[in-house]
Amino acid sequence: MASCSTADQKHRGGVTLPSLPEPGQVVEVRGSTWAATDVVVQGLSRSPADEATASPPVLQHEVNLQSLDEDRMGEELRVIWELEVGHTVLPDQGLPEEITPEGFDDPRAVGALVDAVRWGAVTSADPKRFQSPFRAGVTLEPYQLEPLRRALAAPRTNLLLADDVGLGKTIEAGLVVEELLLRHRARSVIIVCPPSLSLKWREEMRDKFGLDFIIVNAAALAETRRTHGLAANPFRLYPRIIVSMDWLPRVTAQRLLRDVLAEARRSASARRYAFDVLVVDEAHHAAPAAPTATAQGRGYAVDSRRTIALRRLAEHCEHRLFLSATPHNGYTESFTALLEMIDSRRFSRGAEIDRSALAEVAVRRLKTQITGSRAFHERVLQTLPFTPAAEEEARFALLDAMLKDSARERGQKRLSIAALLLKKRFLSSPWAFARTMSRYLETSVGNREWVEDDSYYAEIMGSGQSDEEEGLDEQPEFEALRAAKADDPLAAAKESQVEDLIAWAQGFQHRPNSRLEALINFLAAVCRPDGRTWTNERVVVFTEYADTVEWLVEVLRSRGYDERRLGVIQGSTQREQREALRFAFTEDPSKEPIRVLVATDAAGEGIDLQDHCHRLINFDVPFNPSRLEQRIGRIDRYGQAHPPEIFSFIPVASPSSTSGSSAMAALPGLADTGRPGSSGGSALLSGDLEFVGRLVEKVATTRSDLGAVNPLVDTEASRRFLGASFGRATARSADEEAVNKVMAGSVSMNRQLTELARTYEARREELHLSPGACRRVVDEALRLTRQPLLIEDGDERTDAPLFRIPRLAPAWQGALAGLDTVNAPGQWRPITFTELDGADRERLGRDVVPIHLGHALMQKAARVLRSSVLSSEHALNRVTAVVVPDWETTCVASVARLVLVGRGGLRLHEEVFVTGLRLRGQNLAEEKVHDLLDRVLDGDDLLAADAPVREQLARAWMQEGTRMRERLTTEMGRRAERQADRVKDQLASRCQDDTDRARQIFAAFRRNLQDSLRAVRESQDDGQDALFTLVTDEQRRQRARDIRAMEERLDALDEEETREVDGIQERYRDIRPYVSQVALVFAVSGKDAEQWQQAADLTHSGGEGTSDAGEVSNTGADSNASDTGDTAEASDTGNVGDAAGHSAADDSQEAGA
Q1: Distance CA 481, CA 456 (A)
Q2: CA quadruple 921, 924, 928, 931: dihedral positive or negative?
């Protein structure tokens, strides 16, 4: 890299060239403000024509720019500086050389400017000085700040956000992402989530954090290539993107990513990553699914395509946030595979789990651990009784007999996975069973041997169930059926029996069975008790299969639940329609008529339904406890005003338990009723239905680690429905203990909450953040751009001040994003700057929009004000004067901005500091400078100086005898130097701490790998693996790959450590300070104001009392100039007007310095 000074570039050979910026300088390019991060000389001169007139030849320069606009955080631009048009290097703004009486601003405008600059000051030197919580459009709870605290204290962010369902993991991740962007520790972000959640993530990031994301999929790729060319790569083009888990492993996405990942590896700079931040939502989908259970053991989890694709992406991302309330599926190798993606410096797939490392990475809190006013309501578990019809019992017994006869005919001791699938569909609904049997018969017989591999087992048992396509022909469950035709689970059944079953099931297409009749009666009692009038109560009904949804909706429509009253969400529902339904269902029932929502598990993740619904019905039950918990979490979450009621169906005439030891003893709470082969035919259906009903009770009351329940449910469900007795190897007690301890949640919750709440309030006070200050920033920005001001409004439902948005010019329209609604586009809702409490939020619903620092409206307003600091051509002069009647003596204060920039133009620190000066007398104490700013800029009744006072101040500023500007400039420079040195020391300490911590992490991981490999070799010497039973060839290959990967990681660890440490130290090298003046503020004492007014009156009347500029520094000199309130003494009492400085960014530490 090479650079040239601005002076060298200005004139060469008589040709005037654009001034060349230096790294760290602020420039204006293409109408926006940027920071120059790098300037590189190109090898070719400008052109032959230029060379003819310029000697020596002028080289071109590639200038790398980073956006300084908060709504474009992370955006970068590369330009050839000499070829740009209308660009300029913005000069540092110093104190004004002259002031005119007409050049004073309204103090409210200057106060708004200072606030806007103060709110934009972010530092990497102090982890506690965060800003993102004040840029979030939600009312935060203290526990939601813990992930942010950990992220800012670590060398890089690697966290598993495993909070209980409904505690706000999306908000926690958003806080971390925005803070990393603000601190310039990140520029690019990629979010990976289930397909159904991509739109929600985009809206959450925009509305709650003011961050715009682009959803990248096949349609977006086509549009990008249409607008940017066929070679355009959206992964390289957009700094913030969202990708679905479904699209990521596909060939197209992998090909696009391959180019970006390869480019990152070739980079020689400290930015070795393709993306700075990776966020993975519902991360349990990325972990290998549970392995096939057999009589020999429970097997070994094998990587899926999704696992492989996400691991490859994670390796090229610096900061990683994985979100899942149910990350542990009970299988150590699956959990360590997930942990390795989160932090490959601490974990390796198949290795032992370092409990201290896990405790540092995982953030886990349970609802039951949050007490006091923030406590969550207890779940209420209820049953809906029904009596299965005799014909339904008989048909299920016939199906069971047909499956068993077919298994015996093939010489099998247990039923196949396909048999389990058929039983699950029968238990869901007759229509789902009919549709499944019809599709099954229509498929062609497979031409390969049927193997029950892990993907089919996981799909049908539930741990790996499709999150997008329930019940569709291409769903993996049907692939299992097609493959099973080569080994027909109904081979022994007569054709007439099969046809009879199908005909019976198809007969339910337009009529309910006993269970659906019970549901209809329940809905009527809750939503329409008199049969005519609809109440404001709502109910959500979950089922596993789209066929069951079709049947439920068909019957409910015939009972009066039209499209206005009944909504449907399933895997095939378009994203826009899904969001519209979610909006309607969470709106006030008095405004939206929808009362019942029927959903498959595609709605079970990420769709929050707690606002106006507290009843959930499980029409059928998935065998995966994690998936069941995700369902319940749709209404049992933060913001739920009522105890959530969870309903499941239980047969009222359950069969008697069989004699002998209970097969369900391993799973307390589930009764062993109606086991196959041990009861009469009529017992089978009721017994199986009771089994799945009791599963709801078990999962809903297991609040720590559902992962420990997963293998037990797998085993017991297989035992019950397949007639098999599976063994289960015992996991390492150390690993289980480590996982169980973390998944049990934090034991020091109350102490953490107190400390986090204290930090939050201290930071709010330091930022001078108040509803009044926020409104002033918006109003003053509107005034400066000649727009109408906000219109005060009111609402009887709240005491919070509300405001309506006036009609604004097109330049402001982008700032109004999110103020309208889906149902009323273009109609701006009232806004408030007050943080609404829970009661206000419940009463107001969506009718009012809380405005926060990250909202587009605040960003636009702050940008308008801050632009005056970067431009000399602005409506704001940044000078004001206020009369303070009880102030002892007239003072002047300079508000300045200090920025420290590291290598690559990275902003490491920014703060606002103040330097104060008396017009006469001794120094002004530091605490009085701070008090001056509060009184002059934030007072309730500001008295702006009138014309005579402004004239005297302007003359005094330019009077040579006072040397006011010179003295203030000198002291401001000294203060900036002291502040810069202090911050550099802090950054050097942070660099050393991060380096030491990184070395500790690698040392611990090195020991962990050595211990794990030693244990592997010892077990191999004994001829067995102590933990795993390797059932299939693919499982054996996976275990071999894991062991080989651990060996390779151990060999490469030294090189990785060196690269990690170099990256940390690179960030803190070549630190350069930049200072710019923000505002000049005069605080005029009442005595001086009165004297100057009298002098002006005498002059106006032609009297003898004219006061010239020289009299300002002497007339009315305070005989008691030492001021007993001052704590700082002048270093030279003979030097009248010596200054004292004060840093607004560090009040407490610098006091008395």
Answers
A1: 9
A2: positive
Report the distance separating Cα 547 and Cα 551, nearest Å.
6
CA 729 to chain centroid: 38
For residue 831, give the 3-state DSSP assignment. Answer: strand
Picking from 335, 363, 333, 357, the residue whose alpha carbon sits closest to that of residue 345 is 357
Q: Mean pLDDT, to the nearest integer, of 871-878?
A: 72
What SS3 state is found at 76? Answer: strand
- How large is the angle between the packed helices 107-119 and 856-870, nearest 10 degrees? 110
Decide: helix, strand or coil at residue 278: strand
Of 805 and 1108, more confident: 805
The kind and range of the H/E element at 346 are: none
What pTM was estimated for this model as a whole? Answer: 0.82
Backbone angles phi, psi at 468, to 5 degrees: -135, -30
Which among 669-673, 965-969, 1099-1103 has the top mean pLDDT? 965-969
Residue corresponding to tokens 């029409």: 619
Buried residues in 571-589 as b, exposed as e (16+ CB within 10 A): bbbeeeebbebbebbbbeb
Three-class DSSP category at 980 = helix
Instruction: Give the residue among 889, 882, 881, 886 at the shortest CA–CA distance from 1116.
Output: 889
Structure tokens at 241: 């993107």
The answer to whether the CB of 584 falls within 8 A of the CB of 594 is: yes
Q: Rounded to an integer, what distance in angstroms lies between the CA atom of residue 4 and that of residue 8?
A: 6
| CA of residue 493 relative to chain centroid, distance | 54
User: Whats the size of the chain, residue-wise?
Assistant: 1153
Going by DSSP bridges, is the β-strand pair 214-215/189-193 parallel, antiparallel, or unpaired?
unpaired
The total of other beta-carbon atoms located within 10 Å of residue 559's CB is 12
Asked whether the predicted pLDDT for residue 639 surpasses 60, the reply is yes
Task: Of 699, 606, 707, give the one whose Cα is nearest residue 289.
Answer: 707
List the structure tokens of 828: 């701006």
Rounded Cα distance, 330 and 482, in Å: 30
Count CA atoms within 13 Å of residue 192 on its CB side. Answer: 28
856 close to 815: Cβ distance less than 8 angstroms: yes
pLDDT on residue 508: 93
CB atoms within 10 A of CB 741: 17
pLDDT tens per residue across span 709-744:
666 677 777 777 777 655 444 444 567 777 777 777
What is the predicted pLDDT for the residue at 977?
92
- SS3 percent helix, strand, coil of the chain, rounded to 5, is 45, 15, 40
What CA–CA distances, in Å, run from 340 to 246, 333, 345, 1039, 1142? Answer: 21, 10, 8, 15, 47
Q: What angle do CA 661, 664, 668 make, to 5 degrees?
A: 115
Residue 603 CB contacts under 8 Å (≥ 6 apart), including other chains: 196, 542, 569, 570, 578, 597, 634
pLDDT digits (tens, 9 = 90+) for 1050-1060: 999 999 999 99
What does the alpha-carbon distance between residue 185 and residue 1064 come to, in Å, rounded to a whole number?
11
Which strand ranges, in their side-by-side order, compose the sheet holding 32-45?
Answer: 76-80, 59-67, 32-45, 26-29, 88-89
Q: d(Cα 1045, Cα 1050) in Å, to the nearest integer?
A: 9
Long-range contacts of the stretch 221-229 (C-beta < 8 A, 24+): 221/252, 221/256
- Residue 695's nearest CA partner among 675, 667, 674, 654 is 667
How confident is the model over 644-656, as pLDDT tens digits? Answer: 999 999 888 644 4
| Residue 295 contacts residue 1031 (beta carbons within 8 Å) | no
The strand pair at 566-569 and 596-599 is best described as: parallel
DSSP conformational letter for 812: G
Q: Which residues contact 283 (CB under 8 A, 6 or more apart)?
A: 160, 322, 323, 324, 327, 338
Instruction: Measure Cα distances from 208 to 135, 195, 204, 774 in Å.
Output: 8, 21, 5, 16
Separation between Cα atoms, residue 849 and residue 841, nearest integer Å: 10
